[in-house]
Each structure stands twice: as structure tokens, then as C-alpha cells.
């Protein structure tokens, strides 16, 4: 079978992604009627409907749903091939990372990658929102996930987000030292409504932890909690693997080896279609080697 017109395939990809003829037309710089005509040509060529047209909405048909991801991947491959050939884009690596990992590990170590690969300029954005790694300009995302992602994405675990209470040595000494988990209840607790607190205290055999009566606070990001903990403001439930420098330097202490888990971890994620781009391959290999120590058993 001869390949259908590229304009019709492009129109199908846009409509399938937006599930809207209007939004697809805006993206392609075409009229809605022109987009509809291209879809009609494609459906006639295939001999089957690609969309189910309903009042005020459309849906992909069974055939359309099967075809859409393959067409989308093909366009992603074409886009990356042209970008790679142009050379300019291949010289810049765009990374989107959740703030905690960006601040606690990546910003401190990224210079080592750039020393090893000076030909690659790195742009790092620390942001809590998820970016579109399949269709956007970001090459690699560092995300907190409960499980690896699929559907066109590749995921690599960097470090499990296991957690344990950390605090400043000065705060610990204010009650004569922290000798058993229950001693922590005598100290200020940062983010007292954090679900991690209940999970860790339960795992430690301490029953009855409650945020009631404790000053309400919500710093959210581990990097902010760690800063507050180092200042002696309270006990923070943190991922020790991301605070090894602070622990080794005596700015924080981990009084108990017990780690609790909610099943999440920090993952490096990128589009399958970008797997073989030199800049992505080089960063992936460096990142997995550089973080290997955090995945080793304690």
C-alpha cells in the first residue's frame, strides 16, 4: 500500500492528540474544514473511520486508537532526526527536575558532567509540575514516581525515596540526646501533617503520633525541610540518601538506621524516541554511574 499524503497523516496526528478538529487546525495553521478534508482523504484511503464523531466531541475509533501512537512516534523520530542533523539542538540538553533532587544532588554534581562533556550545554529547570517529555522540548525529566513510566517513555530508578527522621545535633542535645524513637515526640516536628511521619513512627513501633497541638507548617519540598532542620527548627522526615553531605558534615544527624517507604523513588525519564540521541545517551550513562552508590544497600 502506498503511503498516504503526509499532510493527511499530519492532520490525523494532531487531531488524535487534541481530540479536537478546532485545536488541531489552530496548531497546523489550517482551517477546520481543511483538516476535516484531510481526515476524510485518509479514511477513504484506509477504508475505515478513524474517529467517532459525537455531539460536541470526537473519539478515536478502534483503528484510530491503534494507529495514533505509531504515527505519533514516527513524527517524534522525524523531529529528532532533523534536530540531530541540524546539530544546534543536539548541543543543548534540557533537563526538568523536581526541586528536591535538583537542589540536593543534581545542582551539586552537574558540573562534573559538563567537565566530562564540554560540548554539551545543559539547561536545568527545577519545577514540581510534570512537563510533556513526548512532545515538548525537554530532553530528560527527573520525577518522583511510584513505578516506572511507559507509553513511549523510558524510566531508570536513580534512588528510592525511603525516609527517616533527620535533625540538627544541637536540637537533639536540647533533650539530652535522642536515644529511642519516642524521644522525637518531645521535639518540634516540621510539616507535622506529613504522611511520612505516621509511616515511620508505625514502623518504629511508636504508636499514637498526632499532629494535633503542633504548630501547623507545610514546607513541602525536602530541600526546604532540610534547611529548616539544619537551623534547629525541628525534626524533618527526609530521604537520607539525598542528605549524605549534610550528615557526613555533622549538620544533620540520622539517629536511627530504620528507613520507611511509601514505594516511591526518583526516576530519570525520557522519550523512547530520544533514547539514541548522543546527548541523552551520554547523560543517561553518566547519571546512572554517578548515582549508583545511592542504590547500593546501606
Automatic annotation (TrEMBL):
Belongs to the LysR transcriptional regulatory family. Residues 4-61 form the HTH lysR-type domain. It comes from Devosia salina. This is LysR family transcriptional regulator. SUPFAM superfamilies: Periplasmic binding protein-like II, Winged helix' DNA-binding domain. PROSITE patterns: HTH_LYSR (PS50931). Keywords: DNA-binding, Transcription, Transcription regulation. Transmembrane segments: none annotated. It comes from the Bacteria. The keyword Transcription regulation applies. The keyword Transcription applies.
Amino acid at each position: 500500500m502506498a503511503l498516504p499524503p503526509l499532510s493527511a497523516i499530519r492532520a490525523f496526528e494532531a487531531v488524535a492528540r487534541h481530540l479536537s478538529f478546532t485545536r488541531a487546525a489552530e496548531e497546523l495553521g489550517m482551517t477546520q474544514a481543511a483538516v476535516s478534508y484531510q481526515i476524510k482523504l485518509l479514511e477513504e484511503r484506509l477504508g475505515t473511520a478513524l474517529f467517532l464523531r459525537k455531539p460536541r466531541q470526537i473519539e478515536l475509533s478502534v483503528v484510530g486508537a491503534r494507529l495514533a501512537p505509531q504515527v505519533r512516534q514516527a513524527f517524534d523520530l522525524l523531529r529528532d532526526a532533523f534536530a540531530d542533523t541540524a546539530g544546534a539542538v543536539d548541543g543543548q540538553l534540557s533537563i526538568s527536575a523536581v526541586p528536591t533532587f535538583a537542589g540536593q544532588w543534581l545542582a551539586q554534581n552537574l558540573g562534573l558532567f559538563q567537565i566530562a562533556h564540554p560540548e554539551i550545554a545543559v539547561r536545568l529547570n527545577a519545577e514540581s509540575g510534570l512537563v510533556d517529555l513526548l512532545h515538548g522540548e525537554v530532553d530528560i525529566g527527573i520525577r518522583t514516581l511510584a513505578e516506572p513510566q511507559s507509553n513511549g517513555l523510558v524510566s531508570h530508578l536513580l534512588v528510592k525515596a525511603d525516609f527517616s527522621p533527620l535533625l540538627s545535633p544541637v536540637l537533639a542535645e536540647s533533650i539530652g540526646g535522642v536515644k529511642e524513637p519516642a524521644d522525637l515526640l518531645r521535639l518540634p516536628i516540621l510539616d507535622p501533617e506529613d504522611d511520612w511521619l505516621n509511616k515511620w513512627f508505625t514502623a518504629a513501633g511508636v504508636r499514637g503520633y498526632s499532629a494535633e497541638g503542633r504548630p501547623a507548617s507545610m514546607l513541602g519540598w525536602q530541600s526546604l525541610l532540610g534547611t529548616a532542620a539544619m537551623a534547629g527548627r525541628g525534626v524533618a522526615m527526609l530521604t537520607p540518601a539525598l542528605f549524605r553531605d549534610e550528615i557526613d558534615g555533622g549538620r544533620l544527624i540520622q539517629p536511627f538506621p530504620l528507613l520507611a517507604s511509601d514505594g516511591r523513588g526518583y526516576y530519570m525519564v525520557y522519550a523512547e524516541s530520544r533514547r539514541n540521541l548522543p546527548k541523552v545517551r551520554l547523560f543517561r550513562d553518566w547519571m546512572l554511574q554517578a548515582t549508583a552508590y545511592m542504590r547500593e544497600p546501606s
